[in-house]
């Protein structure tokens, strides 16, 4: 019997809003025939990131794509390793003859080190290797000294995580994401001056071993051969990478994310400007951390993709509505102590639907 080579795995980490999903979508759009499985770590009942990635042209039918995007809901990957991650990896290992690569997108607060250590487990180690851990950096945010585009929202999420030191500065979580990196992408490099970008590069380099490469990007647009095929074997050396939060994971089995509320709302077609104004008001009034979803805009043949971090919303039309597809607006709101009934009522009132 032919012995299969180890299946390479790329882990993409970084704060929410840094551009991880955009990077993965770019990688899948340029897969060049590679058969890629994707594990998406997403808060919320509605797998919006999974829906985004399923639209990428990865050379398979929609039915096949549905089987290749694995979504781990309600928690960072370091928390769900024993409950969800291992069964998913076991299924992928069983299919590794049909795959060329696995991509894993962590949540915005995931600490990558415990996830990489999971690849030391015998059943996974014999079949897979971590080709690289890629950390995506929001360059303008680091230049501003905030490390995330909306540090208050990121910090609020961090303080709900019992496995993190709530008194330490946000910089330590940023440093821990860098500590496991084999490749660092300074994203949104086009949005800051060359001088500021040089300062960001120096600040990032202080947290990295000399061998870790740092490259610049705009909207994650990089050649695929720069991103995969690095052969880092990260699981072999991850234990030697120092993390500020190493001790928080020793001997701890409980990692409760119940303090996060994630609600899904379905609405009819909605005027684009009215919807965005209404969502902005909800974010301000209820401290919503993140908004993701799709909107049906009257008179528009394409679906509007909406992604919000704090009061900043990014939007674009991502694809045509299917002929037999219901043109509805579906949203996920993530925050603390959210009242689903109240939020839906406020949205409907603002949209007069």
TrEMBL record:
Keyword Hydrolase: yes
SMART domains given in the database record: CobW_C
Biased composition (Basic and acidic residues): 248-258
Keyword set includes Chaperone: yes
Any single GO CC term annotated in Swiss-Prot or TrEMBL for this entry: cytoplasm
Signal peptide (UniProt feature, chain positions): none
GO biological process, one term: cobalamin biosynthetic process
InterPro entries: CobW, CobW-likC_sf, CobW-like_C, CobW/HypB/UreG_nucleotide-bd, P-loop_NTPase, Zinc-reg_GTPase_activator
Alphabetized UniProt keyword annotations: Chaperone, Hydrolase, Nucleotide-binding
Pfam families named among the record's database cross-references: cobW, CobW_C
Reaction(s) catalysed (UniProt annotation): GTP + H2O = GDP + phosphate + H(+)
UniProt-annotated stretches for the region Disordered: 237-258
A molecular function (GO) term: hydrolase activity
PANTHER family: COBW DOMAIN-CONTAINING PROTEIN, COBW-RELATED
Sequence similarity: Belongs to the SIMIBI class G3E GTPase family. ZNG1 subfamily.
Role summary: Zinc chaperone that directly transfers zinc cofactor to target proteins, thereby activating them. Zinc is transferred from the CXCC motif in the GTPase domain to the zinc binding site in target proteins in a process requiring GTP hydrolysis.
Protein name per Swiss-Prot or TrEMBL: Uncharacterized protein
The species this protein was found in: Pseudomonas fluorescens
